[in-house]
Amino acid sequence: MTARGIRTDGDAEDLDVEEVLALVNEDNGHRASGDHAPAPAPQPQGARKPDRDGPDRRHGDNPDRHHRATPWPEAREIAAHAALKAARAARRAPASVPLDAALGLTLAAPLTALTDLPSFDTSAMDGWAVAGPGPWAVREEGVLAGQAEPETLTDGEAVRIATGARIPLDTTAVLRSEHGRTDTKGQLHATREIQHGQDIRPRGQECRKGDQLIPVGTLVTPAVLGLAAAAGYDTVTAVPRPRVEVLVLGDELLTEGLPHDGLIRDALGPMLPPWLRALGAEVTAVRRLGDDAKALHKALTKSGADLIVTTGGTAAGPVDHVHPTLERIGAELLVDGVKVRPGHPMLLARIKEDQHLVGLPGNPLAAVSGLLTLAEPLLRTLGARPAPEPYTMPLKDAAHGHPYDTRLIPVVLRGDHAVPLHYQGPAMLRGMAAADAVAVVPPGGARAGQEAELLDLPWATAGIEVCFT
């Protein structure tokens, strides 16, 4: 079993991060990660008739064009390389971001110490600062954190001191509160031997001014924010979040209440924005357009987002307007159908050099498949976020597969095994709602005990991302 983690080696996936960081820093006159060239992008698949996946008008099955769909691994590569081209075209400059807004971004400049840490000798414990051998006469006034430099100690003197307080000059050591006692004359005695410098954090113990604390390309975590603040930063230089607009299509969708009269509740409108934020995006708008070709055309031509995500309408039904609208505006289809279940009719199109559209199937679990297949690598690359390290776990139970396509199924992690969940149909979210990860099942399925590649869900690996606003 392979451990989970973040890639730090020099494989092809890392080139995404390096290339984007180089692009966003180019305008500042330097390249962030050297002159690495990205691997050659797979060739776009070209325009094709729409494919289907599932039982309804948005998700049928068309065997005539199944063989022309893009293999699942290749579709993910195409999405990542499309983002590289978009980053090159957009010349998105690094942003100076306040610390409270930087969580989950990628550093576009190294974090260099602005001061020594600590910037002065401090006490590591509550107790007494003592000078010379004991016993010691204790001063009346103690030393608290945040106070100016205290008076110098002389041999035989001690002063009460709090954790984090500045150490008086000529202090020998800090005697912990639990290791000292005072006699009836007020003299302080040590109850155990103390060493010179004990429990004193010397200036510069953690770093010296000018030391590099965090390199370019690091994902900003809560710990990175804390270190930046301790080092004197109010802002960090980071790759800005890709802007995403969500277009919810379908006249049959309700926004409240129970399903009735052939109408169903919209699951994707509530689910997609937080999921996209978890993938590092800034969701600028969620628009409900119904099945209106004119409204879709207007939305696509007026959008200023880096990525447009549509739901439904990717098949060839009478009100499936995504393909005709893309053709009308001259968009280039990079991926038109993927050999994956659920989610077969997903698509990726380049609208402008710096703008793309991911068309998700309308069925909820099929839409999740589209997010993981096309939106995740595209957004990760645009945001210069590090690629997750692939890992595998043995399956607890057999997983049924498709004869020719990759299958993505929700799983829970129990000990050293991944347990496939039920409710795996294209329209079902019950399994995904309980999942820890998604298993990549090869064509033909996988037997019990067989190692399967797993895709982590963003909140399972770094719950911070789901809090993005």
TrEMBL record:
Domain MoaB/Mog, residue spans: 245-381
Cofactor annotation: Mg(2+)
UniProt keyword Magnesium present: yes
Comp. bias regions, Basic and acidic residues: 1-10, 48-64
Span list, region Disordered: 1-72
Cited InterPro entries: MoaB/Mog_dom, MoeA-like, MoeA_C_domain_IV, MoeA_linker/N
Source organism superkingdom: Bacteria
Keywords, ordered alphabetically: Magnesium, Metal-binding, Molybdenum, Molybdenum cofactor biosynthesis, Transferase
Pathway: Cofactor biosynthesis; molybdopterin biosynthesis
E.C. no: 2.10.1.1
Signal peptide: none
Reaction equation(s) it catalyzes: adenylyl-molybdopterin + molybdate = Mo-molybdopterin + AMP + H(+)
Role this protein plays: Catalyzes the insertion of molybdate into adenylated molybdopterin with the concomitant release of AMP.
PANTHER family: GEPHYRIN, MOLYBDOPTERIN BIOSYNTHESIS PROTEIN
Protein family according to the UniProt entry: Belongs to the MoeA family.
Protein name: Molybdopterin molybdenumtransferase
Phylogenetic placement of the source organism: Bacteria, Bacillati, Actinomycetota, Actinomycetes, Kitasatosporales
